[in-house]
Amino acid sequence: MRGSFLPLFLFVFLIQGAVFADDQALRQKALQAGLAPLPAVAPEAADNPVTPQKIQLGKRLFFEPRLSKSGLISCNTCHNLGMGGDDNLPTSVGHGWHKGPRNAPTVYNAAFNRAQFWDGRAKDLEQQAKGPIQAAAEMANTPDQVVQMLKSMPEYVAWFRESFPSDPDPVNFDNVVKAIGAFESKLITPGAPFDRFLNGADNALSPEQKDGLALFIDRGCTACHNGVNVGGQAYFPFGLIKRPGADILPPEDKGRFAITQSASDEYVFRAAPLRNVALTAPYFHSGQVWDLKQAVLVMGAAQLGAELSDEEATKIAAFLGSLTGVAPEIIYPKLPVETDETPRPQL
Amino acid sequence: MRGSFLPLFLFVFLIQGAVFADDQALRQKALQAGLAPLPAVAPEAADNPVTPQKIQLGKRLFFEPRLSKSGLISCNTCHNLGMGGDDNLPTSVGHGWHKGPRNAPTVYNAAFNRAQFWDGRAKDLEQQAKGPIQAAAEMANTPDQVVQMLKSMPEYVAWFRESFPSDPDPVNFDNVVKAIGAFESKLITPGAPFDRFLNGADNALSPEQKDGLALFIDRGCTACHNGVNVGGQAYFPFGLIKRPGADILPPEDKGRFAITQSASDEYVFRAAPLRNVALTAPYFHSGQVWDLKQAVLVMGAAQLGAELSDEEATKIAAFLGSLTGVAPEIIYPKLPVETDETPRPQL
Questions:
Q1: Which residues does the annotation say bind heme c 2 (chains A, B) (predicted)?
Q2: pTM
């Protein structure tokens, strides 16, 4: 009886060994393709040291609707920390119910992007934060009005002093976005199944996800979507091989061309970072595709000239699902009460 | 040397004793006028037992923008838990940037009100929650669409099962508002200086606040603003003695008359609960008065026929500031990701 089990044991052992070897090979392949585990901490900007006080202030500002002209729209309105760090709308809605031109990117792990916005027009989180506060179709406010609002409340003045102790006049617009940037730099989502796989946990990915990862590399997706953020590092024309339809790539939005005025930047966008992509539909700068598999098919045709099969796209989408990490716990902040000097909401 | 201090000690002791006696008398007077400390726990509705599961579900629903047609507006948009439980706007802004007709009341301690809305048209928190979800100028949704949205996400289905274990088909609109009501019943703000004073802490109120409390009683404010919520218990005509101007009391909003069609209910509103009133400007159903002292003066003239002096109004406003309690800590909820069956945002 005992003897008869031995070959079975050996067989299982050999198969297991083969699987382990495959997993190790796939892991190496992923690392060689430029994919990498998400660090738990983002690098700090030299001119914006991240202190606990600044993070707290930044959190309050992130949830502060009085940063907007109406008093109704906060950063969290379009970058909802409970919904993957975006608004799950095709394009965002702002002041006066105006619809913005592009889909809101997630704020989670944005600290790891080379630049911010779909066209990379802001070099970091701090510069990014200046945009929506002032955009007419978003928060529609002015730096002067923001500073007046913050100076009107003694709690904010004290918090700015604590956060910028060497600054003689700390309540200013540059410090507003530094505080927001400091908070956002902590919005990291480590512990995704893909990270656990890269760190040695063979079973963190399902067989389908492993096939999807292999395809993601073999088909060339990693040419653009690489690094710790699986994208967000460089610019590429949308429709490199074949231009998508006007619903997905509206002709009037020429992407990075609007920044550089260089013909070679027409319809060029920053490769989307794919961390938590399963939480951030709808997809593309136009926000017109809700299904992740469909988005994979669009990308295959547009960027790689590849007619991916339904099965391949399913597997790649399953792999992309393994990029969903664990968002930090956020205690909802209590905001200070306004005073006579606080600008009134302008609806 | 020692002997020369004795009279001073005696003097201080006697003064202190007099102050203690005054404090005790003021405390008794306040209790006799119908004021009462805020309980830490709200009474439970017989048909809506408050379980931890239901509170959690209700919290998620409270912060869920997909309860709205646009996918952008949650309960928290107008009842911001970081801003005193309201939106600090004159009147609320909803779907399509429509301005609602009335100022959003705070959700904090609303469980202690006799009825909900400025006109009391909802008997409890559950019935209240049905209103804004469906109002065209607020969330503009339908019960069917809400149920479809919730049934489309397996996490919500599981949470409703846990929250309503004996219900064979738990995902329904009545249970949506029961869960929201259960969460809201925990939004209690105990520990206000006024409560500490009522509970025996003589120094919890400043001398100015004590004077204000005495005036609040002596001038008759407690005739309407009484009970644990310092209001919220009964209905009164706004302008009982002298009708305020049309900016504060717009002629087209006849208050409770719209509910009862009774001529005696013209311009009748529920006495505003005054807990945390210092956090919830602007004031009145029209939201046209930002300054609390000004609001006190308006009330004195309109309801009591009293020309309060500036000093008296200042003292009463200082007392009202002692009604600000400690709001519970809220961990911002993570919401489930949509599926193919989730209704898409309709902007």
A1: 221, 224-225, 299
A2: 0.94
The fold of A191-321 is Cytochrome Bc1 Complex; Chain D, domain 2 (1.10.760)
Q: Which of A63, A291, A344 sits opposite B82 (nearest CB)?
A: A63
Give B291's contacts in chain A (Cβ within 8 Å): 340
Inter-axis angle of helices B310-321 and B292-299, nearest 10: 120
Please tell me which of the candidates B66, B291, B347 has its beta carbon nearest to residue A93: B347
Residue B304 CB-density burial (10 A; 0-12 exposed, 13-18 middle, 19+ buried): middle
* Interface with B, mutate which of A68, A86, A97, A324 (most B CBs under 10 A): A97
CA distance A118 to A91: 12
Domain ranges of chain B: 52-184, 191-321
Residue B85 identity: G
Q: Alpha-carbon distance B131 to B128, whole Å?
A: 6
Check if B138 is active-site.
Answer: yes
In one-letter notation, the amino acid at residue A193 is P
> Under 8 Å CB-to-CB from B213, ≥6 apart: which residues?
B26, B30, B194, B197, B205, B319, B322
Equal fold, A52-184 vs A191-321: yes
Smallest CA–CA separation between A82 and chain B, in Å? 4
Distance to chain A for B195, nearest Cα, Å = 21
Task: Note down pLDDT in tens along chain B; length 347 residues.
Answer: 455 565 665 565 555 556 678 999 999 999 999 999 999 999 888 899 999 999 999 999 999 999 999 999 999 999 999 999 999 999 999 999 999 999 999 999 999 999 999 999 999 999 999 999 999 999 999 999 999 999 999 999 999 999 999 999 999 999 999 999 999 999 999 999 999 999 999 999 999 999 999 999 999 999 999 999 999 999 999 999 999 999 999 999 999 999 999 999 999 999 999 999 999 999 999 999 999 999 999 999 999 998 999 999 999 999 999 999 999 999 999 999 999 999 999 99
Q: Which fold has domain A52-184?
A: Cytochrome Bc1 Complex; Chain D, domain 2 (1.10.760)
ipTM of this complex prediction, to 2 decimal places: 0.94
